[in-house]
Amino acid sequence: MTDAAASAPAVDPDETIALLQELVRIPSPYFEEAEISEFVFEWLAERGHDPHYHHVAEPDITEYEGDNVVARLEGSDDADDAPTLLLNAHVDTVKLVDAWEEDPCSGRIEDGKLYGQGACDMKGGLAAVMTAFDALADVELAGDVLLTAVVDEEGPYGLGTDRLIRDGYTDDCDAAVVTEPGPILAQSDLENPALLLGARGRFFYDIEVRGHAAHGSQPEKGVNAVVDAGRLAAAMDEMETGDHPKLGSGSVCPLKIDGGSQTLSVPERARLMVDRHVVVGETMAGARADAERIADELDLESDVEVGFREAPDPDIVYGPYVTDEDHPLVTALSDATRAVAGTDPAYGYFSSVGDFNYLGDRADLPTVILGPDGENIHGAGEFVYTDEVVEVADIVADAAVRFCG
């Protein structure tokens, strides 16, 4: 650790926002990231950072293929005892929303706001880490800085960061910063600059309900799986969840019931999908047992089989995590915030899930979310505050010098 007040690299505000505009103007819904991955690669290559593509493939469920972009600034510490910092941002967005009243990839700037699908989630954060990484190349660091611009964070499985972990890219890292927008999805009301030091996790129930078919004019002779699935959904909506002093309470949200048809028959099968956000201490086995207990207490006539969403691998799970406020990365980011913004950062915790769960839980890295805020994420009219994009870039660059030495 070092006092970086005098040695923190300068981030060019105009270049940062120009980069953000270019990123937003490239449509990149998840599973369609080839163009933006190429742009990020070329931007880094033009600046001499020797990036490489890291291939991501999932042939069984999604048949997806794409490429992360990875670059490393190597530190000067030959003894390998200086820390390595991972900077992570995703290049994809949700699918383009139809309700936009302008080009969803316009990159229009008005009143300090830049508009476009993914502007806040999270091309603002992507632009910030790219320009911070570029600025850090002009500073001599003891430890390494690893930049990972990943695909498929918005998709069903977070395949880009999942593959980073599987292929060992996180093995030599000591901590991670993910530049997702933080305050807008925090557990409590926050304003930037804010450091989010953990996140709830998520399990996705996929429950099969099996009843007994009969003619629809005589429903009493059958067992209606759709009705029983509805009863189970209502009961699970009231399920007690865990509590955590930092992450708050868990939550349950029934999402979908499939079953039956227009034919005049009592539905014999239904499928219930339920989202469950969990806190530290709640496990998949416990979540399964909770749902099975509720089904037993309802004494349904249907048979109920509680499972979880199909995944490419059993360990693709969004586990909850918390990073210690005293960790050196948090100290570095707090000091950098004071140096850049002239104020103490707020501390908070994320209410939902993302690649940071994979890093904080599966990769066991102390992970902090720090990103520019905005509004309307995942929806029409999404925007990011341009001044916060620049501020995040400055804080990340300053903190990297403090953390990496």
TrEMBL record:
PROSITE patterns: ARGE_DAPE_CPG2_1, ARGE_DAPE_CPG2_2. The keyword Hydrolase applies. Its cofactor is Zn(2+). Residues 198-300 form the Peptidase M20 dimerisation domain. InterPro entries: ArgE/DapE_CS, Bact_exopeptidase_dim_dom, Peptidase_M20, Peptidase_M20_dimer, Peptidase_M20A. Keywords: Hydrolase, Metal-binding, Zinc. Pfam families: M20_dimer (PF07687), Peptidase_M20 (PF01546). It comes from the Archaea. GO terms for molecular function: hydrolase activity; metal ion binding. The keyword Membrane does not apply. Belongs to the peptidase M20A family. PANTHER family: ACETYLORNITHINE DEACETYLASE, PEPTIDASE M20 DIMERISATION DOMAIN-CONTAINING PROTEIN. This is Succinyl-diaminopimelate desuccinylase.
